[in-house]
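Example 3.
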Amino acid sequence: MKLLPESKLVVASHNAGKVREFADLLRPFKLDVVSAAELGLPEPDETGATFVENSLIKSRSSAKTSGLLALADDSGLAVEALDGEPGIYSARWAGPDKDFTVAMKKVNDALQARGAVEDKDRRAAFICVLSLAWPDGQTQVFEGKVEGTIVWPPHGTHGFGYDPVFQADGHDITFGEMDPQEKHAISHRADAFNKMLEHLTTRNDDGGRQ
Ligand code: IMP
């Protein structure tokens, strides 16, 4: 299946895990996938105020410096009772050591400080914004979401980041306890990716640009 008229795509990330995940997801579509790190592209500062802005900063930067179609992902955890925090700062809440036991505890402490002990007061969503940027400046954005509850204490050793404290609606185990395939079938990233595929494959020969 041919997804786009372009044959080469750069994943605008220096995170090897993300790049691997996208290479897997894109494998059926006959695209030659390279990463921003492999091409030695600069890593732009994520100075945006939203997931969309940060995703576009990354995809536009890679498209401009590589001359290729670029795909970027910006994602995070938004906790309702914390007014959407940690949100775009999800990675930063883990501190310089990228310690997510610290970040998860911060989320739970903040919820407890607000008296949020019951499930209904601990609503949260993982959000993923994918963006495609073409070298000519055109862009497209796709947002994915999975809703659930913050549980405490953390459970499970699968996944990464906040997975051990996130229980998706309709499930009684956390993302950290789920088989990775099960998580990938319902995750925010899968949701955004499916929206992107649906859009691109139902479009015609200009590859879905508007
Ligand atoms: P980004 O690389 O700037 O988009 O930061 C994403 C951050 O959000 C990660 O470091 C994680 O803390 C969090 N995050 C995003 N997606 C997930 C997920 O699927 N599970 C757990 N944490 C996630």
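The chain has one domain: 8-200. The chain is about 30% helix and 20% strand.
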